[in-house]
Amino acid sequence: MEFATWLTFFAACWAISLSPGAGAVAAMSAGLNHGFRRGYFTTFGLVLGIWTQVLVVGVGLGALVAASSTAFQVVKWAGVAYLVWLGISQWRAPATPMVAQSDEGPTVTRRSMILRAWMINAVNPKGTVFLLAVVPQFMVLSHPLLPQYLIIAATLAFTDLVVMAGYTALAARVLGALKSPYHIRAMNRVFGTLFVVAGSLLALFKRAD
């Protein structure tokens, strides 16, 4: 991949990361509930989900999902169901104080936070179709493909690590203002609604013919 081509892709990655979506909602929710240092583990899961999508596209499964209506629908509705489930869970979450979790007896493990975030980005056919539409424009098919996929994966990861850090930190700064059960319940429902909206938008997403 030539440097000028990479710069264009790098700019596209910032636009992709900054655009609101399920990943941004997950990062902000983690920042509100766990503070920045602990909540940032969610971003690692989101990046792993992006890498999963790149791997899927790289081995050709993405082409199958894009070509097969049945495969696309199965992956699509699995993603919809998961996002809606996250939204309902957030709505029903207890109105406990949103303070940063300490290392003593955390109620949510870092591993579970990473796994949950990984599923948000990995089980998303829109991401697969998007990568199929965008990535080939920056690939040089006459050159070895593996190094190019590694550059693409690293670039996507870098921009997401930076952008999601901003989302997480922004949400974490609100922690001090959320002390009453009323405010906590309201924020839980706001983020729960955002997850459901993200799932609804995914349900409306259709393949380009």
Notes on the protein architecture:
- With 209 residues, this protein is mostly helical.
- It has a domain at 23-65 and 95-101 and 108-186.
- It has nine helices and no strands.
- The chain has helices at 3-18, 22-39, 41-59, 61-67, 69-91, 110-122, 125-134, 145-172, 181-204.
- Helix 2 packs across helix 3, helix 3 (41-59) packs antiparallel against helix 8 (145-172) and helix 4 (61-67) packs across helix 5.
- The longest helix is centred in the last third of the chain and has 28 residues, at 145-172.
- It is globular, with a radius of gyration of 18 Å.
- Residues 98-105 have low confidence and may be disordered.
Anisotropy-based shape: globular
Q: Let me know the number of strands.
A: 0
Give helix % range.
over 70%
Radius of gyration: 18 Å
- Unreliable sequence segments: 98-105
Structure class: mainly alpha
Gap between N and C termini, in Å? 29 Å
State the main characteristics.
mainly alpha; 9 helices; 209 residues
